[in-house]
C-alpha cells in the first residue's frame, strides 16, 4: 500500500492541485466554499482538464486512421487471402500480417494500451484523497486540512456528504441515509447506462466486418449485456465524489466516441457505411470526390493518372459495399499522400 | 521433484488464470486497441508462461509502456526462454514435465 502511495504521490499532488484550483476559481466567482455543488463542479473541472489533455492522443489516432486509407489495397489483399478462413491459426496469421503492414507503412490505426491505464491512477488518487478527506486528513499537497475537511463534509442536497458511499450510508450507525442511497443508486444507473451505450456504439457500429466475423465476436456481444451488472454492483462501494468523477468521464467518453464514430468510422464497419449513405443522401458524396480531384489536380499536374484512378476506383467500388468503396477512391495511385491530407476537409 | 516443480509453478499459473479471465471478460470491452501483435495481454501471458509471475509481469509492464501512441507497433513476439523445462497445457497453463530433458 505504501509502495503504491509512493508511486501515486505525484499524481495525487496534481489531482489535488486541480481540485483546489477549480475550487478556488469557483469560490472566487462567488460560490459557497463548503457547498456540495462547488466541490462537485470542481470534480467536473478535474475531468475536463484530464480529458482535454488526452484529446491530442485521440487526434493522433484519428489521423492515423485516415492514413490507413493509403494502405487499403494492401490491406484488402491480406483480407482476401484469408477470406472465409475462420480457424484460429489463419486469424492469427492474418493479424500478424496486418500488423506488419501497419508497421512497414507507418499507418498504425490502433490506439495503444498505455492511455487506457492513465485514468486508473487518477481514479485511485481521487479515491484516496476522498478517503483521507473523510477522516479530515490533509492531502499530500495543495489540499490542506481545512480544505480536505470541507471537501469530505461537503453535502449535496443538504444531507449527502461526498465521502459517503451507498454501502456506508446503508450501514450508518445512525440509521440508513436514504438521500445518499438514492443519489448513489441514480448515479450508478446513469453511469452503467453511459458505459453500456459507449460499448454498444463500438461493438455494433465501429467494428469492421472482419472483426465481426471472428468467433470472439459473439462472446463479446454477450459480455456487453452481462458487464453492466458487474459495474452495477461494484459501483455501490465508491464514495459519491469518486462516482461524480467516473460519471463525468463516462459521459465525456460517450460523446467523444459518438462524434468519432460518426465522423471517422473504422473503415469497413457499419458506421462507415452509414456515413457513406448519409453523405450520399445529402448529395455530398459526389461533390466531395470532385473536390478531391480538383485539389489533386491543382497540387499535382499528373493529370494522366487521374482518370485511371477514378476508373479503377469505380471498378473496385461497384461490386462492394458502399462502406469500403470509399477507400480505393481516396487512394488513387501515387497521389495518396496529397489526397489523404486533403480529403478529410470537405 | 515433480511435486516441487508443481509447487513452484503455482504463482505463475495463478497469474495466468487472472490474465485469462481479464482477456475473456474485460479486454473485449476495449475492442482492438494494441499497436502490437501479439497484444499486450497476450504478450504478458506468454512472458509469464516462459519466465514466471514476477519476471513475466515485469516484461509485460515494460511492453505496456512501450505500447504508447508514439510507438510504431508491429510484430513483437515474446522472446522464448532457451531452456524452458516445463510443458504448456492446451489451455495455456504451465505444468511440470514428467521426464526431464537431458
From TrEMBL, chain A:
The lineage of its organism: Bacteria, Bacillati, Actinomycetota, Actinomycetes, Micrococcales. It holds the Pfam family 60KD_IMP. NCBIfam families: PRK01315.1, yidC_oxa1_cterm. Residues 321-334 have a biased composition (Polar residues). Keywords: Cell membrane, Chaperone, Membrane, Protein transport, Transmembrane, Transmembrane helix, Transport. It is a multi-pass membrane protein. It is found in: Cell membrane; Membrane. The chain crosses the membrane at residues 7-25, 37-59, 109-130, 179-202, 222-247. This is Membrane protein insertase YidC. Residues 272-346 are annotated as: Disordered. One of its GO terms (biological process) is protein transport. Residues 39-261 form the Membrane insertase YidC/Oxa/ALB C-terminal domain. It comes from Mycetocola tolaasinivorans. Residues 335-346 have a biased composition (Low complexity).
TrEMBL record, chain B:
It is found in: Cell membrane. The keyword Membrane applies. SMART domains: Haemolytic. Keywords: Cell membrane, Membrane. It is a peripheral membrane protein. Could be involved in insertion of integral membrane proteins into the membrane. This is Putative membrane protein insertion efficiency factor. It comes from Mycetocola tolaasinivorans. The gene is yidD.
Amino acid at each position: 500500500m505504501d509502495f503504491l502511495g509512493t508511486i501515486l504521490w505525484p499524481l495525487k499532488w496534481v489531482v489535488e492541485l486541480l481540485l483546489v484550483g477549480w475550487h478556488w476559481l469557483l469560490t472566487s466567482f462567488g460560490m459557497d466554499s463548503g457547498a456540495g455543488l462547488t466541490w462537485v463542479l470542481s470534480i467536473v473541472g478535474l475531468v475536463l482538464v484530464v480529458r482535454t489533455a488526452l484529446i491530442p492522443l485521440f487526434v493522433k489516432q484519428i489521423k492515423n486512421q485516415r492514413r490507413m486509407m493509403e494502405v487499403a489495397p494492401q490491406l484488402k489483399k491480406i483480407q482476401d487471402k484469408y477470406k472465409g478462413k475462420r480457424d484460429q491459426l489463419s486469424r492469427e496469421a492474418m493479424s500478424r500480417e496486418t500488423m506488419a503492414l501497419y508497421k512497414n507503412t507507418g499507418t498504425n490505426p490502433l490506439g495503444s494500451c498505455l492511455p487506457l491505464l492513465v485514468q486508473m491512477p487518477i481514479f485511485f488518487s481521487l479515491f484516496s484523497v476522498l478517503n483521507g478527506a473523510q477522516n479530515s486528513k490533509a492531502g499530500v499537497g495543495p489540499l490542506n486540512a481545512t480544505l480536505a475537511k470541507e471537501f469530505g463534509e461537503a453535502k449535496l442536497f443538504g444531507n449527502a456528504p461526498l465521502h459517503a458511499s451507498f454501502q456506508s450510508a446503508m450501514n450508518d450507525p445512525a440509521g440508513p441515509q436514504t438521500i445518499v442511497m438514492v443519489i448513489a443508486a441514480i448515479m450508478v444507473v446513469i453511469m452503467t447506462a453511459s458505459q453500456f451505450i459507449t460499448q454498444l456504439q463500438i461493438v455494433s457500429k465501429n467494428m469492421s466486418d472482419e472483426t465481426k466475423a471472428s468467433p470472439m465476436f459473439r462472446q463479446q456481444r454477450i459480455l456487453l449485456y452481462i458487464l453492466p451488472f458487474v459495474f452495477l454492483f461494484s459501483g455501490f462501494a465508491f464514495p459519491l465524489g469518486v462516482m461524480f468523477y467516473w460519471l463525468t468521464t463516462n459521459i465525456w467518453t460517450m460523446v467523444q466516441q459518438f462524434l468519432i464514430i460518426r465522423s471517422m468510422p473504422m473503415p469497413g464497419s457499419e458506421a462507415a457505411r452509414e456515413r457513406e449513405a448519409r453523405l450520399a443522401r445529402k448529395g455530398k458524396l459526389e461533390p466531395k470526390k470532385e473536390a478531391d480531384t480538383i485539389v489533386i489536380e491543382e497540387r499535382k499536374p499528373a493529370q494522366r493518372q487521374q482518370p485511371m484512378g477514378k476508373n479503377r476506383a469505380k471498378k473496385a467500388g461497384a461490386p462492394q459495399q458502399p462502406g469500403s468503396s470509399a477507400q480505393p477512391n481516396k487512394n488513387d495511385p501515387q497521389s495518396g499522400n496529397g489526397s489523404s491530407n486533403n480529403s478529410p476537409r470537405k | 521433484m515433480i511435486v516441487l516443480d508443481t509447487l513452484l509453478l503455482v504463482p505463475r499459473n495463478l497469474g495466468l488464470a487472472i490474465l485469462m479471465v481479464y482477456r475473456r471478460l474485460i479486454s473485449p470491452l476495449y475492442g482492438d486497441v494494441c499497436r502490437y501483435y501479439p497484444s499486450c495481454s497476450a504478450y504478458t501471458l506468454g512472458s509469464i508462461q516462459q519466465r514466471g509471475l514476477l519476471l513475466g509481469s515485469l516484461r509485460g509492464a515494460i511492453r505496456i509502456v512501450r505500447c504508447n501512441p508514439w510507438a510504431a507497433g508491429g510484430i513483437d513476439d515474446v522472446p522464448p526462454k532457451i531452456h524452458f523445462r516445463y510443458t504448456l497445457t492446451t489451455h495455456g497453463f504451465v505444468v511440470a514435465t514428467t521426464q526431464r530433458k537431458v
